[in-house]
Amino acid sequence: MEVKILTLEDDLEKVVSGINSAAWDIKNDISEYTVSALESYLQREDTIFLACYETTGVTHTLLGIASSRIEIKPYGEELWLYVDEVDVCRDHRQKGVGKFMMQHLIEIATNEGCKEIWLGAEIDNLPANALYRSLKPDQVTDVIGYTYEVDA
Prior knowledge:
Shape: globular
Largest sheet: 5 strands, mixed
């Protein structure tokens, strides 16, 4: 397995094609990716987008993706990493892909001087919660999430 941190210099058409053709399921809640949306995301300096691959010869198989961003606290100057998504392709679950990507995100946060990492998972997403607990978090809290859709 290898993790690639994507940048604007990468072949985003190939990346997007790989994401859109990968085997996802309802637990991933993956929307159709576009090159322009991914470019817009990567243009922000605070974003980190990982793609995890398995390489056999010249073939690269997408195993999963993760998106996150480095934030700063408004009441101090501490940096923290917010993990937005960790998605593993359906055919590669329970093979250490999610853990591999999370370990890379933890390493990135450490190298960037972040003081903490924050992420959330639905209570009924047992595999995700098992993964995150296996990484020995300092704290696990009950959180209620609210979503507000706004007309643009």
